[in-house]
Write a structure and sequence with these properties.
The chain is an all-alpha fold. It has three domains: about 1-70, no CATH class; about 80-160, Cytochrome Bc1 Complex, Chain D, domain 2, CATH 1.10.760.10; about 200-295, Cytochrome c-like domain (Cytochrome Bc1 Complex, Chain D, domain 2), CATH 1.10.760.10. Helix content is about 45%, strand content about 0%. It is built from eleven helices and no strands. The protein has helices at about 25-50, 55-70, 80-95, 95-100, 120-130, 140-160, 205-220, 220-225, 245-255, 265-270, 270-285. The chain is elongated, with a radius of gyration of 36 Å. It starts with about 25 loop residues before the first helix and ends in a 10-residue tail after the last helix. The structure holds heme C (2 copies).
Length: about 300
């Protein structure tokens, strides 16, 4: 390469006297230029063929990662203390209302003894929790909690030592029919502290409309959409087991009739929704009444 420097190109005359040198590009610049070309070839080969960083490739990689983070597969029990602790929280938030803060039982059975109504193995617990026992007031938690939290809460229950090893025989639950309905009868009537008053006039049309939605999501499985009854009794006939005044219905729905399979709804729905659904049930069941007498 001839390296003559600072030679004028000699077109100043055409350009208002502005002259220009004809110098070669600096070596560092040429070097960088050649380097980028080599780099581009190498990077292209790596991107598309060796490292497979194509959009399709990274999409597949992300899917793999998501599968680990959000498993869609079935729940399973673990002994990892972190899982168990997470399960304790799930339990406190969702289950303690019925099974007791220490799993000692209440509306739902005790979960730390060897007495099991359903399959008491870890897999059985997962199944019961996922599918619930609708007829007995145990909600189906699968769709609500998802497999991760079901796994955690099952791990928590298993860590309490009451569950059965495969093949191990648990104790059968005591027969309620020890001469009639026996002990179960003791809690037939909804029990709990006095509730705030609920007058018919409190049931506004908005509440009734909101209550219809609550009823559709939570109650139709047992009482049917038209309230003529299925597992639970007819709610629009004249007969009431626990009283047909609005305050009675409020009480029944709030505390449930656990021994008969009517869920205690206050812990699940909260008072506001309970009042809405009570307003709706009352409006339907008393639709035929002469309105003025109720005021
Ligand atoms: C609304 C009340 C209620 C809530 C809330 C509830 N349960 Fe239950 N659970 C019940 C009832 C009632 C039964 C008994 C079902 C039966 O008699 O067949 C039961 C049964 C069970 C059983 C089977 C017990 C056995 O002896 O076979 C397990 C396990 C269980 N529940 C776990 C849970 C977990 C975990 C949660 C929280 C995610 C939960 N439950 C929330 C009411 C509830
Ligand atoms: C898992 C089934 C089940 C679900 C879900 C259920 N109930 Fe019930 N309900 C029953 C059963 C069973 C009874 C009867 C209790 C008895 O025999 O004492 C009952 C009784 C009642 C009663 C009292 C009826 C009477 O004759 O005194 C009312 C009111 C009621 N349910 C309202 C509701 C509302 C509102 C919901 C939804 C928030 C609901 N129920 C959801 C099973 C259910």
């Amino acid at each position: 390469m001839s390296r003559e420097r600072d030679q004028l190109m000699g077109h100043g005359a055409d350009n208002d006297g502005i002259e220009e040198y004809d110098n070669p590009l600096p070596d560092w610049w040429i070097g960088l230029f050649i380097f980028t070309i080599i780099f581009a070839v190498g990077y292209t080969a790596w991107y598309h063929f060796i490292g497979d960083q194509s959009q399709a490739g990274s999409y597949i990689a992300q899917l793999e990662q998501a599968k680990e983070l959000y498993p869609t597969k079935t729940a399973s029990v673990s002994t990892d203390p972190a899982d168990i602790e997470a399960g304790a929280k799930v339990f406190a938030d969702n289950c303690a209302a019925c099974h007791g803060a220490n799993l000692e039982g209440g509306i739902g059975p005790m979960l730390t003894d060897k007495v099991w109504i359903h399959d008491g193995t870890p897999e059985g617990v997962i199944k019961t929790v996922t599918e619930g026992v609708a007829a007995k007031g145990m909600p189906a938690w699968g769709p609500i909690l998802g497999p991760n939290r079901i796994s955690n809460v099952a791990s928590f229950i298993v860590s309490k030592g009451g569950t059965l090893a495969p093949g191990e025989k648990g104790e059968a639950p005591p027969e309620p029919a020890a001469g009639g309905d026996g002990a179960a009868d003791a809690v037939v009537h909804p029990e709990g502290p006095e509730l705030p008053p609920f007058a018919v006039a409190d049931a506004t049309p908005e509440m009734i409309a909101a209550g219809q939605e609550v009823f559709k999501t939570n109650c139709v499985a047992c009482h049917k959409e038209d309230m003529t009854g299925l597992v639970g009794p007819n709610l629009i006939d004249e007969e009431w087991l626990h009283g047909g005044e609005i305050g009675d219905i409020y009480r029944t729905v709030t505390y449930g009739v656990p021994s008969k399979g009517m869920v205690s709804w206050e812990p699940m729905l909260g008072d506001e929704k309970v009042r809405q659904v009570v307003a709706y049930v009352y409006s339907k069941s008393h639709a035929a009444d002469e309105k003025p007498a109720q005021e």
